[in-house]
Amino acid sequence: MMDEKQALALGDDALILGHRLSEWCGHAPSLEIDLALANIGLDLLGQAQFFLALVGDADALAYRRDEDGFCNCLLVEQPNGDFARTVARQFLFSAWQELMFAEMAGSADARMAAIAGKARKEVIYHASFAADWMVRLGDGTDESHRRMAEGLDFCWRFTDELFAGSWAGLRAGWDARVDAVLREAGLARPKLGRGVTGGREGRHSEHLGHILAEMQYLQRSFPDAVW
Amino acid sequence: MTPIWEVFVRAKGGLSHRHVGSVHAADAKMAVSAARDVYTRRMEGVSLWVVPSAAITASDPGEAGPLFEPAADKVYRHPTFYKVPDAVKHI
């Protein structure tokens, strides 16, 4: 009954974005933001464990799988950039996750529904945190506005992929949510051509390989090492 | 300079909010969010208060003698001469 491909995609999204956010640890603009981003990263890591465990051995899937076996969307593997780009990536992704989990909470598969119910509460905060910073930076100083607009432009090209396949129906709700925040932030909706896709099929940007090299190094060099 | 806010956490229903520390935040909304992320990430609380540090008036350390020392020899002010039933918590 469960859609294994879907569980893998959601687990990989959460795993890779969680890892990206962990890269901010010790580098964020302030202690408060450092902890906020780490908290979000840990929420995502928890989601990844749940979803990957539905498919198989979560540790093996995270640490022993090659790049072309990952089916996370391209958005989550993009480098952090500055804080504004991280905020843009988080808002666009969390707004999608919030809608997707709301729908999945009613899933016929009890395990998917249970994970969605728990994750949704986490994601509501992620989306609200990121939306808040979109508005603060977009409607802030000239420099913060410029950086927020640049971050948004960069991330925008990867958003089409979120609505591939059975998730196409989430688009209208996502558009409405995003447009409302952009309006409040004084940011223009980016006008970009065709979106970049491929992550869901295992065709990734060069960035994923670097993430995996760091994430998988220990288990590849010392299989089954524990501490 | 980003303002400082004092953070108070209610550990669970029925208890009072207790001071736990402070955060930097531009406004009250950001302060609540920062307090949530810094001070309740290990299930420490069910409710938060944030108060601008600048709104707090403190006693003058130079007046600590007249303010606090007279209480030192008034042991009879402690309610230690009553038996508190075991079932009464949080006193």
Largest sheet of chain A: none
Strand order within the widest sheet of chain B? 2-1-3
Rg calc of chain A? 17 Å
**What proportion of the residues of chain A form beta strands (DSSP E)?**
under 5%
Number of strands of chain B: 3
- Class by helix and strand content of chain A? mainly alpha
Reconstruct the topology from this structure.
The complex is a heterodimer of chains A (227) and B (91).
Chain A: H1 4-22, H2 31-55, H3 58-63, H4 74-77, H5 83-104, H6 110-138, H7 142-156, H8 171-185, H9 206-221
Helix pairs in contact in A: 1-2, 2-6, 5-6, 5-7, 5-8, 6-7, 6-8
Chain B: E1 4-10, E2 18-24, H1 28-39, E3 47-52, H2 64-68
Antiparallel strand pairs in B: 1-2, 1-3
Q: Which tags fit this structure?
A:
heterodimer; A: 227 residues; mainly alpha; Ferritin; 9 helices; 67% helix; 0% strand; B: 91 residues; alpha+beta; Ubiquitin-like (UB roll); 3-stranded antiparallel β-sheet; flat
Q: How would you characterize the overall build of this protein?
A:
The complex is a heterodimer of chains A (227) and B (91). Chain A has 227 residues and is an all-alpha fold. Chain A has one domain: Ferritin, core subunit, four-helix bundle (Ferritin, Up-down Bundle). Chain A contains 9 helices and no strands. Chain A is globular and about 50 Å long. The model of chain A has no long low-confidence stretch (mean pLDDT 96). Chain B has 91 residues and is α+β, with helices and mostly antiparallel strands. Chain B has a domain at 1-55: Ubiquitin-like (UB roll), CATH 3.10.20.520. Chain B contains 2 helices and 3 strands, in the order E-E-H-E-H. Chain B has a 3-stranded antiparallel β-sheet. The termini of chain B are far apart. At the A-B interface, helix 2 and helix 6 of A face helix 1 of B.
